[in-house]
Write a structure and sequence with these properties.
Blueprint: H1 6-24, H2 28-49, H3 53-61, E1 70-79, E2 82-88, E3 94-95, E4 98-100, H4 107-119, E5 121-133, E6 146-158, E7 166-172, H5 187-198, E8 204-205
Parallel strand pairs: 1-6, 5-8
Antiparallel strand pairs: 1-2, 1-4, 2-3, 2-7, 5-6
Helix pairs in contact: 1-2, 2-3
């Protein structure tokens, strides 16, 4: 659970209640109440995150039906004792290659695609190492509620290159990690990947 970001948990929970209510209710009076709850959720985020209500309305209005977590998929690729990281063009910090899951692709297909696009390497997904709830880890606050999937991948070809969303790529040892893009992955998560690579029988969750 977030401790310093309790307001975000409350806002996300209110949004989920309102979204479910607006999806399933047939009572026009309940519609009005759920719209009020949705507005309260926007007000909380706007007050604490300094995001304009117009922008929040754009984000909220993209959601339809029962609200569920978004899924972020990350590839874990090792060369010896070093792990593959890519430098994000958005914040110029480093992360495991990956991104949002795509409709129509399995999780393993997503991670193979993302690693190729962001690093130039061809990989085979071999094992699901972890499924994390973002709220349980020291990420900065984010509007969306997110699950993160980490796949151990084996390098099978390609050449190490940057992509459209990355400006550099490289392999790093556990004691030489660069500045990480903590919205995407934390140091503790990277360290856990090193541990799981040595003993990959266990799958972590939450």
């Amino acid at each position: 659970m977030y401790s310093k970001y309790k307001w975000l948990e409350i806002a996300q929970y209110l949004q989920s209640i309102a979204q479910a209510g607006l999806t399933y209710t047939e009572n026009k009076y309940d519609v009005e109440r759920f719209e009020q709850i949705m507005h309260l959720s926007k007000e909380i985020v706007s007050e604490y995150a300094d995001i304009k209500m117009e922008r929040l309305s754009e984000l909220f209005d993209k959601e339809y039906g029962y609200l569920t977590p978004k899924v972020d998929v990350r590839g874990v690729v090792f060369r010896g004792n070093k792990i593959l990281l890519v430098k994000e063009t958005l914040d110029r910090k480093w992360s495991l290659p990956g991104g949002w899951a795509d409709v129509g692709l399995t999780p393993s297909e997503v991670v193979i695609k993302e690693v190729k696009e962001e690093s130039g390497l061809d990989v085979k997904a071999e094992k699901l190492l972890a499924v994390f709830d973002k709220k349980c880890h020291p990420h900065p606050p984010e509007f969306y509620y997110v699950y993160k999937m980490f796949f151990l991948c084996r390098e099978v070809g390609g050449d190490l290159n940057s992509g459209l969303e990355t400006s550099a790529t490289g392999f790093f040892g556990i004691d030489e990690l660069p500045e990480l893009s903590t919205n995407r992955n934390t140091r503790s998560q990277i360290e856990q990947m090193f541990s799981l690579e040595k003993q990959p029988l266990e799958t972590l969750f939450d």
